[in-house]
Amino acid sequence: MAVGRNGGLIAGLDVGSTKVCCFIARADQNGIRLVGIGHQVSRGLRSGSVIDMDAAEESIRAAVDAAERMAGETIREVHVNLSGGNPTSHTVGVEVSIAGHEVGDSDIRKVLEHGRARNEPGERYVVHALPVGYTIDGSRGIRDPRGMFGERLGVNMHIIAAATGPVRNLATCVERCHLRIAGLVVSPYASGLASLVEDEMDLGVTLIDCGGGATTIAVFYDGSLVFTDCIPVGGAHVTNDVARGLSTPMAHAERMKTLYGSAIPSASDENEIIDVPQVGETERHSANHVPRSVLVGIIKPRVEETLELVRERLANSGFEKVAGRRVVLTGGASQLQGMRELAARVLDKQVRLGRPIRVAGLAEATGGPAFATCAGLLSYAQRMQAEQVEHAPEPAQQAGGRLARIGQWLRMNF
Predict the structure, then answer these.
(1) 224 in a domain, yes or no?
(2) Same domain, yes or no, for 61 and 168?
(3) CA distance 386 to 390
């Protein structure tokens, strides 16, 4: 996804394991209105990571080109989602001295820069360094410390880092399409920005983005993203199980999963017979015939295992309590029949299906959970634009002269 500087034009690029999607929109004070959409079958990616540079580049080019033609615009930069690279998350605390004076924008910039400057162990790239709460002289729970007084200003930073190799591979594919990356956003954060309401973010909610190659988790609390995790299992693994279990081509396995599949068995499954074309067979009469219960019996264990892994990761994170009893499912794989009911049973929480709610102009075909990440990239891009305007440096600072730097130093220290 990306923020463009072409008259409020912004763009989001969702590079997933099963599809590549590009949204182009115009953002103003009235919100975000979509003007261009392009999506393409994803090639050259597995579990969110690039495994074939040329194939991935071709898919990205095709999706972006379709969106540009529909919008009648050319984009130069994009915000891109990240679900590969095994992203990990942890919180660090940073403090700086403010010597008793009133907290201003410069103090906030200073403490945030200290937090972002922390090096991650190993070859890890910091994708996000998000403030999740400020402190003044140890007093916690401060959302905006500007205008307050104290001796020490602190901030808790939520650091999300990913392996450098997969990040560079993805960035190279995008740049080979002559696009500049305006920002990287982890997939569940983008999906949350698109589909969660404000009350959910404040009270505590777990968002589960069920993608094709990976299932990603995000916990929001007090209006902030406080935890993320990634499980390298998704809807494509269910399709693969069906193809192997019924000895049918992948395309037919995906079709059967979509049309007849369910995560919850029903009483009528034994009576409903499905035609299963066999691998390598061209004659229609050679198709196998199996009851729907066999298909459900293949799908349910894999979905159940994935949800149990989610439950385990949440329990180990220490954020299960702040996440409350609310779960929102997004992503293409969340549309599987019975997914919501099984998630409620395994996680013991209230579950709803999340759709993009902050982008106008989405058609019914592109307004579902599968497009939440791409829509969220637009929301993130708009938010970044607003923050850049809000925190724009003063004219004297922009001049960057020696006197301006001395004046800034005096303001910060006296």
Answers:
(1) no
(2) yes
(3) 6
Q: Quote the tokens at residue 248.
A: 């049918």
> In 211-348, which ranges are E strands?
215-221, 224-231, 273-276, 288-291, 326-330
Instruction: Quickly list DSSP for 28-92.
Output: ETTEEEEEEEEEEE--SEETTEES-HHHHHHHHHHHHHHHHHHHT----EEEEEE--S--EEEEE
Sign of the torsion angle spanned by Cα atoms 233, 190, 45, 26: positive
Q: What is the phi/psi pair of residue 34, to 5°?
A: -70, 135
Q: How far apart are CA 67 and CA 80, in angstroms?
A: 15
Rounded Cα distance, 211 and 195, in Å: 15
> Residue 14's pLDDT is what?
96
CA separation for the pair 26, 34 (Å, rounded)? 7
CA-wise closest residue to 211 among 334, 300, 303: 334
Using the structure block, give the residue that is written with the tokens 């103003």: 28
The number of folded domains in the chain is 3
| Tokens encoding 18 | 């099963």
Residues 23, 11 contacting (CB under 8 angstroms):
yes
Rounded CA separation 193/387 (Å): 16
Q: Quick one: 70 and 128 in the same domain?
A: no
Provide the pLDDT for residue 120: 66
In a domain, 376, yes or no: yes
> Mean pLDDT, consecutive 10-residue segments, the chain of 414 residues?
59 94 90 93 91 95 96 94 89 86 87 75 82 87 87 90 92 94 94 95 95 94 93 94 95 94 93 89 74 96 96 93 93 95 96 93 87 95 71 43 50 50
Q: Which tokens sit at 151?
A: 């001796």
**Could you give the CA distance from residue 255 to residue 251 in angstroms, rounded to a whole number?**
6
Domain of residue 4, residue span: 1-89+164-196+355-414
| Residues 135 and 272 both lie in one domain | no
Please tell me whether residues 83 and 149 are part of one structural domain. no
